[in-house]
Amino acid sequence: MTFAYGARSFARLSRAEWTKFRTVRGWVLGMVAAVLVTVGLGLFAASGSHSSCGGPDDVCPAVPIGPDGQAVDDKFFFVHRALNGDGSITVRVTSLTGRIRLPDVTPGVRREVPRVEPWAKAGVIVKDGTRQGAAYAALMVTGRHGVRLQHDFVHDTAGGRSGVSETAPRWLRLVRSGGELTGYESADGRRWAKVGTARPQGLPATVRIGLFAACPGDLTVTQADLGGAIAASRFAQATAVFDHVSLQGEMSGGAWRHDDIGAAKEPDGAIHHPGGVVRTGGTFTVTGVGDIAPRTDGQTIEKTLSGLLAGLIVVVVVAVVFVTAEYRRGLIRTTLLAGPRRGRTLTAKAVVIAAVTFAAGLIAAGVTVPLGAHVLRANGNDILPVGPLTELRVVAGTAALLAVTAVLALALGTVVRRGTVAITGAIALVVLPRVLATTSVLPVEASRWLLRVTPAAGFAIQQSIPAYPQVTAFFSPQAGYYPLSPWAGFAVSCGYAALALALAVLALRRRDA
Amino acid sequence: MRRELRAEWTKVRTAPGTAWLPVAAVALTVAVSAAATALVSCPSAGCRYDAPKVGLSGIQAGQAIIVILAVLSVGAEYGTGMIHTTLVAMPRRTAVLAAKATILTALTSAAGTVAVLGCVLAGRLVLPRNGFIPARGYPLLSLADGPTFRAAAGSVLYLVLIGLFALGVATTVRDSATAVGLVFGLLYVLSVLPYLISDPGWGRFLWRISPMNAGLAIQSTRHLAALPLGPWAGLGVLAGWAAGALLTGGLLFRLRDA
């Protein structure tokens, strides 16, 4: 048999299967229902989600946007001067201390303890002005994660692992050369080790250069009464002591200035949790609150796809019945008479159901994501913005997840030949783990495990905001942070579908129909 | 009615597929409960887990098998055309459906009781090893304890009601595959929706009408004030779903040609 003949016969089989599918009214209606339920539930959930910031005019402060287009937190205390062209800053950090607020025991009585948040950060920074979200590169010491070189909010390079203490100070040096910044660290100010190089986006000739301190809120995670977990962030601040501050290069604009970047104002105009700087001789003591990091809490575009679970169930039913109906009506004998190469016939069936569900999923997600995001924004919700490629991945990935699930369900239906059992099996494999991971009393680790080893891992393809290891946040499956990366998770689902299809071909070949 | 009961019991007893389903329901329920109790742990600082609820969490998976059992008891008859024979032999349709419901209730309560006893036993054995000890506010799971007994007995009732609900849906749609999809959609998808909607008002409303969330409130023994519905009221919501589905199914069964 030649390749051309094989391809032609496969095309013929696929066409036969497509004809079967489109002429059974219930299956076509099922696909339409899958689209409608996904869009409908998604829009319903979006229209039910309102957000407001309180206050007199109920206007939420605009979320700063970083150089790569993502929403960011940009709040720190900045002591700075202007640098024209190339230059460098060298400092010695002699201490990094902090304060953390603990949950109240007696209501209204504030409990604060001296403790350093693991991601408290202080060091030297070069930034494109003092605007929130402007490009920057910073070399810092952290509470528990050693020396880091970070730039433009999402990029993080680890340096030495040792922290700072009175007996073991740390020297930091940040050198600017054109658009490139290089970080060095040293224990004694003589022998320097390179930490890394950063290229912030669109750094102008004149930049602000100086010292900074910031501290993300301390995070506590508690078990929620109705299942899942609740994360709460409480006030924390960091204080760093710098000396031996030396600047090289052409400085302009006179003496040191300082700004509490992104500080929140109380109704009376005072700054809420202010930072500050105390200068005695050559020593700077800088205190900061807040964080310089990508924002990870807020609505995401994939939140609009909450109806997908219902759509998935409909797709599973149609895909299973697409094969079990043949057994029930005896049509399978005719099918196998017309296409005696059984593996090929089943593959044609799988291709048709995958193509149909992919198209349906593309329509469903393609309508729901932009429309749902629009409704969410209109209701005052901030949606963490993502690039068009990520949005495309979420939409097309959702459609692909539907297609892969349909193939898995079709294969299960072929193996067990009983509709109810196959549907239950497919739902137990794909939908149930997601439900348990979202609603049950299972601890987070168990939820993550479920979303790693079951076909529900493919839901990761919908995650639009990555879980940054350098950000203090509770990245729970409930909040939409999956344990596997989007494509790895999707590959797990594909693996299950391929395995099931292989078993189905084997079963179909071995058994009498 | 005795004739109908006997006929339905003979069908259940002799059909090769349905005989092992109650056994599978028991095994799955106990296995998932045992896994859940092995996964949670209570640190020395204390925790907020509801121990009986964790111990009975296998019901969430085991109910799927009960749904299959219920759906097949009527759906399989339509699938094979057996329904015609059944109705020729027993023309009193309400009695046929009542007999099916009675047999299903008996089977489900038997399987449910065994499963729940297995769950409590697993909880007694595993939970203390994971830090659920009296010193941290967790006495050994015991049916002599009022709330725990309510959770355990209520779980059996929950399974019975889920079975009746699925029976009603299957009688209404007359197709096993569609019925199973519909029931799972109403159970599982409706149970996640409250968690996916950030508006608390809508969330609590959906939680209250969701058959699975409201029905499983019967398993709660702690923080009852935080529940959108009390345990018995929650089970009442599920009973409402079951009654509605059975009434619709029964009415259509009488009115339609088979």
Automatic annotation (TrEMBL), chain A:
The keyword Transmembrane applies. Keywords: Membrane, Transmembrane, Transmembrane helix. The keyword Transmembrane applies. It comes from Actinoallomurus spadix. The chain crosses the membrane at residues 24-46, 305-325, 346-372, 392-413, 420-442, 487-508. This is DUF1349 domain-containing protein. It comes from the Bacteria.
UniProtKB/TrEMBL annotation, chain B:
This is ABC transporter permease subunit. Keywords: Membrane, Transmembrane, Transmembrane helix. The keyword Membrane applies. The chain crosses the membrane at residues 20-41, 61-80, 101-127, 147-170, 177-197, 232-253. It comes from Actinoallomurus spadix.
